[in-house]
């Protein structure tokens, strides 16, 4: 149903019901691993790509955290991209693109961070690999990939039953393959390094890095700018007699 306006308009409510109200909280779990690589850098010089951005919920949270960071949301559904555009209309520095994650229309090594939420379980095995390879290709050396999706087999014993029930209750033809997928091996094949997995209720956040040096373009802090100013100039702003 990804291609219809009807589906795009119902999606957010359906997902919140499915996740017992935790979907947005799960999406926000991607912010700390991104903060680790963005902290201290000039956000205007960075780039973030969210693939399978859906209605743009994660991009909204990312914008709240880094309002001046240029972001691109990509989704193959025109209807979902339209809905995202509506949700995100108040933010600047935001582009939305209808495209396939299997052939991302961006140059190699162009993104500081790539994110993807609740998409991999939708993809057939071969497509999972192609998309993952594309993420590795567009990341800059030192860039970070953060993926959030369902827990997998063996992650949380109490939820094993849920993992079996989900594809029976919903139309999820690739879910059984997803919960057995070895993302660490996939990352190795694409030249990415797996950093960690973090569980988030019925989901997990997987963090991968592309080896290489991160650009350290820092925006001068007020303190360092002030200390770099000539003393003569600093005196001028002091009140007379100080
Ligand atoms: C379950 S939704 C997740 C949406 C959003 N990331 C979220 O947080 O709710 C999956 C999204 O992935 C998109 N999608 C599926 N396959 C894709 C592909 N090959 N390339 C780009 N987008 C894709 C769908 O159109 C849909 O919007």
Explain what the structure shows.
This protein is α/β, with parallel strands linked by helices. It has one domain (5-236): Vaccinia Virus protein VP39 (Rossmann fold, 3-Layer(aba) Sandwich). Helix content is 40%, strand content 20%. A seven-stranded mixed beta sheet has the order 3-2-1-4-5-7-6, sandwiched between helices. The longest helix has 14 residues, at 5-18. It is globular. S-adenosylmethionine binds at residues 2, 15, 27, 51-54, 57-58, 75-77, 80, 100-102, 117-119, 122.
Write the layout of secondary structure elements.
Blueprint: H1 5-18, H2 23-28, H3 31-38, E1 48-51, H4 57-65, E2 71-75, H5 78-87, E3 94-98, E4 111-117, H6 125-138, E5 139-150, H7 160-169, H8 175-179, H9 183-189, E6 193-200, E7 203-209, H10 222-228, H11 231-236
Parallel strand pairs: 1-2, 1-4, 2-3, 4-5
Antiparallel strand pairs: 5-7, 6-7
Bound molecules: S-adenosylmethionine (SAM).
Order of strands side by side in the largest beta sheet? 3-2-1-4-5-7-6
User: Which of globular, elongated, flat, extended, rod-shaped describes the shape?
Assistant: globular
Q: What's the main sheet like?
A: 7 strands, mixed
Class of secondary structure makeup: alpha/beta
User: Radius of gyration, rounded?
Assistant: 21 Å
The CATH top-level class label? Alpha Beta
Q: How much strand content do the residues show?
A: 15-25%
Tell me which CATH architecture applies here.
3-Layer(aba) Sandwich
**What is the CATH H-level superfamily?**
Vaccinia Virus protein VP39
Number of helices: 11
**How would you state the average pLDDT, rounded?**
90
């Amino acid at each position: 149903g990804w291609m219809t306006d009807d589906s795009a308009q119902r999606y957010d409510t359906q997902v919140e019901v499915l996740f017992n109200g935790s979907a947005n909280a799960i999406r926000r779990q991607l912010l700390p691993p991104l903060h680790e690589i963005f902290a201290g850098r000039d956000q205007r010089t960075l780039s973030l790509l969210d693939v399978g951005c859906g209605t743009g919920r994660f991009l909204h949270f990312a914008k709240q955290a880094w309002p001046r960071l240029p972001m691109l949301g990509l989704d193959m559904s025109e209807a979902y991209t339209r809905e995202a555009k509506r949700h995100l209309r108040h933010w600047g520095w935001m582009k939305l693109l209808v495209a396939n994650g299997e052939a991302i229309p961006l140059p190699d090594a162009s993104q500081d961070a790539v994110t993807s939420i609740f998409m991999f379980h939708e993809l057939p095995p071969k497509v999972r690999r192609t998309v993952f390879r594309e993420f590795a290709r567009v990341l800059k050396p030192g860039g970070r990939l953060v993926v959030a999706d369902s827990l997998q087999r063996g992650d949380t014993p109490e939820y094993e039953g849920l993992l079996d029930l989900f594809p029976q209750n919903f139309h999820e033809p690739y879910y059984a393959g997803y919960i057995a997928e070895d993302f660490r091996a996939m990352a190795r094949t694409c030249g990415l390094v797996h950093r960690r997995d973090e569980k988030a209720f019925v989901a997990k956040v997987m963090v991968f890095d592309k080896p290489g040096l991160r650009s350290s373009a820092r925006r001068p802090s007020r303190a360092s700018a002030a200390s770099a100013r000539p003393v003569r100039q600093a005196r001028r702003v002091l009140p007379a007699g100080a």
